[in-house]
C-alpha cells in the first residue's frame, strides 16, 4: 500500500482504501496527518453546538445530533490516524447513521406516520452496519495512484 508505512506504530495498513496523503510522513502514530487533525474543529464545533443546545433547552433531538457529530469526527480521526479496517468502519458507518439522523431531525415534526419512519431509519441503519461489517471488499476504490 504505502512505501512509508514501515515506521507505523499501528502495524500494516489493513483498510480497504487509502486517501490522498502519503502515510506516516509526520509521525509514526498518525497515518494521514491532515485528514486526522482536520477532525479537531469538527469535534470542537459539535461540542459548542451541544453546549448551546442544552443551554437554550432545545429539543433532545438536537443534542443527539451534536453528540452524533462528535462521534463521527472521533471515528474519522481514529481511522485516518491508523488506517486499520476495524476503525475504517468507525468512520464510514457513522456517516450513514448521521445521514439517517439528519433525516429524522429535519422531517420528524412533519411526519404523518410517526412510528413508521423512525422504524425504517433504524432498520436501514442496522442493516447497513451489519452489511458493512460483513463485506470487507469495497465496491468503490480511491484513485488508482493510491491503490
From TrEMBL:
Q: Which cofactor does it need?
A: Zn(2+)
Q: Which amino acid positions bind Ca(2+), per UniProt?
A: 21, 23, 32
List the membrane topology term(s): Multi-pass membrane protein
Query: Where is the protein localized?
Result: Membrane
**Where exactly are the transmembrane stretches of this chain?**
33-52, 64-83, 120-136
A molecular function annotated in GO for this UniProt entry is: metal ion binding
Choose one Gene Ontology CC annotation of this protein and give it: membrane
InterPro entries according to UniProt: ACER, ACER_plant
**What keywords is this UniProt entry annotated with?**
Calcium, Hydrolase, Membrane, Metal-binding, Transmembrane, Transmembrane helix, Zinc
**Could you state one GO biological process linked to this protein?**
defense response to other organism
Instruction: Fetch the Pfam families from UniProt.
Output: Ceramidase
Write out the residues that bind Zn(2+). Answer: 80
Name the domain of life this protein comes from. Eukaryota
**Family note:** Belongs to the alkaline ceramidase family.
In Swiss-Prot or TrEMBL terms, this protein is called Alkaline ceramidase
The species this protein was found in: Dioscorea zingiberensis
Amino acid at each position: 500500500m504505502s512505501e512509508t508505512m514501515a515506521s507505523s506504530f499501528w502495524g500494516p495498513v489493513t483498510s480497504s482504501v487509502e486517501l490522498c496523503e502519503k502515510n506516516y510522513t509526520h509521525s509514526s502514530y498518525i497515518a494521514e496527518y491532515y485528514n486526522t487533525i482536520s477532525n479537531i474543529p469538527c469535534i470542537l464545533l459539535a461540542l459548542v453546538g451541544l453546549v448551546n443546545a442544552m443551554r437554550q433547552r432545545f429539543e433532545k433531538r438536537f443534542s443527539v445530533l451534536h453528540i452524533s457529530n462528535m462521534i463521527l469526527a472521533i471515528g474519522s480521526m481514529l481511522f485516518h490516524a491508523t488506517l486499520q479496517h476495524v476503525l475504517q468502519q468507525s468512520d464510514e458507518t457513522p456517516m450513514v447513521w448521521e445521514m439517517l439522523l439528519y433525516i429524522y431531525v429535519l422531517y420528524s415534526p412533519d411526519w404523518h406516520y410517526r412510528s413508521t419512519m423512525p422504524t425504517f431509519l433504524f432498520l436501514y441503519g442496522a442493516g447497513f452496519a451489519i452489511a458493512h461489517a460483513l463485506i470487507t471488499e469495497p465496491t468503490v476504490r480511491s484513485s488508482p495512484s493510491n491503490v
